[in-house]
């Protein structure tokens, strides 16, 4: 009997943990959808997504406090502050303004970012909340003051020189708040800039090219002459490389848009909103949202819309009146049913429409039209990667006879092939060790990099083991020589990147101390063994400022996940990674492989491993 009670308690704990993970995943997806919506608003203010990921600081408190509505308590709930803390703030604050300030000071301790603040304002009102515009205005003023960083994360020499010329009370970190210095002519000019002028002013600092903005590229379709046929690809040069891939990606995306619209858009669907949210949909109580499903779509349409769309715009049946933009619930990804589950914001239009809905089992139903939005963020990243690929990377992809150093001149100075004597990284002498030496070799030429190494062979020949061993050897050499060594390992599948932890680096860390950091980025949070080597994308974004300064680090991510690294680790004209190991490279398209290459330093060692038969 006691054993059954223990088993039941363990099962309850397991289910509780699963629900918590599902809630966290839902929160992440809803926030991502919100950022997709707010992105265009940020662009119009001359901002980019990373600008929203600046931490709230003490000097920001007064302005932000003025943007929080009267119901600061509800705002605090949306910011996930415990009610006991909010009650304490209410008791300690003399008036609403002081309570808002104390709330924000509490959020500073929690290291909240501006995107969190904007998200909280959005949830406590809507995306048209004028306070959001004011916050974006303020972030723009922060941006045009922000000093550039060097590749080690420090303020550049030019900015240090500029600091000396500032008045004593305007040193970095002690600068007068922009909204306090009202008599400054230049500050007033900044405040009165038009959106177009803002974009011009920060154009050199904005990392996002127009090609990576869906609305902008839709206005610039390529001409047929810009796209090379398969038979003419031999004429591809560094000069026309980016234009060719812009054209190819644009046409591919256009086909996806047409296919999604033709296959999934509909004029006679049914929307059912639950009265009580079923347990399996994992309701997030922090948000005012409707939970329900669309019916009238075939299984094939639901599956395609789940994979290919970002969201769906719901319209009143028989008119173009917009009810809201709804988001896919993650339940759809693992369960194919005759309905598509959605989460919809509590918009006034949808609320009014549901009042007149037909009562059905478990809720109310209305007729709607649906227009699906293609998942253009994927193409945003690919366009971004192609456009931002450094010239030296493009020349590496399209080399000439004199692009690389002479192979006969490679040096193995400082290479000790026996740093790793662990069984999990043991290589055979005849082939694998030879490949390892090619990977760790360096060109003795100071002006020409070593060519990429192509490691190919069928499944089971040890390609992944060679890459893991090479990464370990290269990193140990870098640590011993006190040289910056940063390695990116990418693979096509999630299971493949976890192999580097569970079969190699994690195993080694249990046997010996690793004098460098290993980070695997995955949406699947690891709370068990090797959890210290795992980071979710949110955690990586949170800690990216520290990661940018790490001299010795190995980052492991899928090609898809590496699309998100650029905004955090990019240093203009310098790159970040000294070594890039691309596993399963035969399974990805070139623009996907370019994404990690766009983060390469000028002399980076590039290794491509794969099976030519895949």
Automatic annotation (TrEMBL):
Region Disordered, as annotated, extends over 1-20, 151-194
Q: Which GO terms describe its biological process?
A: regulatory ncRNA-mediated post-transcriptional gene silencing
Task: Tell me which Gene3D superfamilies the record gives.
Answer: P-loop containing nucleotide triphosphate hydrolases (3.40.50.300)
One annotated Gene Ontology cellular component of this protein: cytosol
Q: Where is the composition biased (Polar residues)?
A: 185-194
SUPFAM superfamilies listed in its UniProt record: P-loop containing nucleoside triphosphate hydrolases (SSF52540)
Q: Where is the composition biased (Basic and acidic residues)?
A: 7-19, 158-183
Segments passing through the bilayer? none
PANTHER family, per this entry? Answer: DNA2/NAM7 HELICASE FAMILY (PTHR10887), HELICASE WITH ZINC FINGER DOMAIN-RELATED (PTHR10887:SF365)
What is the protein named? Uncharacterized protein
- Source organism: Amphimedon queenslandica
Source taxonomy lineage?
Answer: Eukaryota, Metazoa, Porifera, Demospongiae, Heteroscleromorpha
């Amino acid at each position: 009997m006691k054993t059954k009670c223990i088993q039941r308690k363990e099962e309850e704990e397991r289910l509780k943990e699963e629900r918590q993970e599902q809630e966290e995943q839902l929160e992440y997806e809803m926030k991502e959808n919100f950022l997709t919506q707010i992105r265009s608003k940020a662009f119009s203010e001359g901002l980019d997504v990373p600008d929203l990921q600046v931490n709230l600081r003490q000097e920001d408190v007064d302005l932000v406090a003025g943007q929080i509505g009267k119901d600061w308590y509800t705002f605090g709930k949306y910011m996930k502050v415990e009610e006991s803390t909010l009650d304490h703030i209410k008791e300690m604050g003399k008036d609403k303004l002081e309570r808002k300030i104390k709330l924000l000071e509490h959020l500073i301790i929690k290291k909240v970012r501006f995107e969190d603040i904007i998200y909280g304002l959005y949830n406590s009102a809507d995306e048209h909340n004028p306070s959001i515009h004011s916050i974006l205005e303020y972030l723009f003023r922060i941006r045009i003051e922000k000093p550039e960083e060097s590749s080690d994360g420090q303020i550049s020499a030019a900015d240090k020189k500029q600091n000396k010329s500032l008045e004593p009370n305007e040193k970095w970190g002690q600068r007068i708040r922009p909204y306090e210095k009202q008599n400054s002519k230049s500050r007033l000019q900044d405040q009165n800039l038009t959106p177009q002028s803002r974009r011009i002013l920060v154009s050199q600092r904005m990392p996002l090219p127009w090609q990576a903005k869906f609305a902008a590229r839709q206005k610039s379709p390529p001409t047929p002459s810009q796209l090379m046929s398969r038979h003419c690809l031999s004429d591809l040069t560094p000069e026309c490389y980016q234009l060719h891939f812009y054209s190819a990606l644009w046409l591919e995306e256009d086909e996806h848009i047409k296919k999604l619209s033709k296959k999934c858009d509909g004029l006679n669907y049914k929307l059912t909103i639950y009265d009580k949210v079923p347990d399996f949909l994992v309701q997030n109580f922090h948000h005012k949202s409707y939970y329900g499903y669309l019916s009238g779509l075939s299984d094939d349409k639901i599956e395609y819309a789940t994979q290919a769309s970002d969201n769906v715009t719901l319209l009143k049946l028989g008119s173009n009146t917009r009810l809201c933009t709804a988001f896919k619930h993650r339940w759809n990804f693992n369960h194919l049913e005759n309905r598509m589950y959605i989460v919809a914001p509590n918009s006034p239009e949808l609320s009014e429409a549901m009042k007149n809905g037909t009562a059905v089992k478990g809720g109310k139903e209305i007729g709607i039209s649906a227009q699906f939005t293609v998942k253009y963020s994927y193409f945003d990243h690919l366009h971004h990667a192609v456009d931002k690929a450094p010239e030296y990377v493009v020349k590496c992809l399209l080399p000439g006879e004199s692009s690389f150093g002479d192979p006969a001149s490679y040096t193995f100075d400082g290479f000790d092939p026996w740093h790793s004597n662990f069984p999990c990284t043991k290589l055979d002498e005849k082939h694998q060790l030879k490949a390892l030496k090619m990977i760790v070799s360096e060109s003795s030429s100071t002006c020409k990099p070593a060519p990429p190494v192509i490691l190919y062979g069928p499944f089971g020949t040890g390609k992944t083991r060679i890459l893991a061993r090479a990464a370990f050897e290269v990193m140990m050499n870098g640590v011993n020589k006190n040289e910056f060594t940063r390695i990116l390992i990418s693979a096509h599948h999630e299971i493949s990147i976890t192999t580097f932890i569970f079969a190699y680096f994690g195993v080694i860390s249990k046997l010996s101390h690793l004098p460098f950091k290993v980070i695997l980025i995955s949406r699947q949070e690891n709370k068990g063994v090797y959890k210290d080597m795992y980071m979710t994308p949110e955690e990586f974004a949170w800690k990216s400022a520290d990661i940018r300064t790490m001299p010795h680090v190995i980052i492991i991510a899928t090609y898809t996940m590496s699309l998100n690294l650029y905004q955090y680790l990019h240093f203009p004209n310098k790159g970040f990674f000294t070594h890039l190991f691309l596993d399963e490279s035969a399974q990805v398209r070139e623009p996907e492989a370019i994404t990690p290459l766009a983060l390469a330093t000028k002399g980076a060692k590039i290794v491509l491993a794969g099976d030519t038969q895949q």
